[in-house]
């Protein structure tokens, strides 16, 4: 197991198992829908419908969907601490993190920064040279973790509903 923060359990990223996929979706789809509702002005029902459809399309093969990598962050006892979903782009030598989540009971303990270090080492070993991601504008905690891990803002996503001023 790989670690990095004194006094914390040793951590590892391992492939998500088929039996863990439903629990992942149970967390991710409503979370993604809530972000869509907040940031895109959708109703809760519209956002849930849209999030469900997008995720079903993106992860149609479950945890072994071609072109997608779904991992679990675990401690030395294989206790689940969080999830990481990314899409490698070999041609661009980069990876895009679609989702990174530390379970609420384990937040604020340095696991996020440690996990980012683990994924960076993993991707470097695969010959990739850049990690990209999107973070919601209102997610201050995540932005702090990313910024203190060396990520920089490269732009802003913007949205406008057609017909509104």
UniProtKB/TrEMBL annotation:
Domain of life: Bacteria
Domain N-acetyltransferase: 11-165
SUPFAM superfamilies: Acyl-CoA N-acyltransferases (Nat)
InterPro entries: Acyl_CoA_acyltransferase, GNAT_dom, YpeA/RimI_acetyltransf
Gene3D superfamilies named among the record's database cross-references: 3.40.630.30
A Pfam entry, by short name: Acetyltransf_1
Gene Ontology terms for molecular function: acyltransferase activity, transferring groups other than amino-acyl groups
Keywords: Acyltransferase, Transferase
Protein name as it appears in the record: Acetyltransferase
Source organism of this protein record: Pararhizobium antarcticum
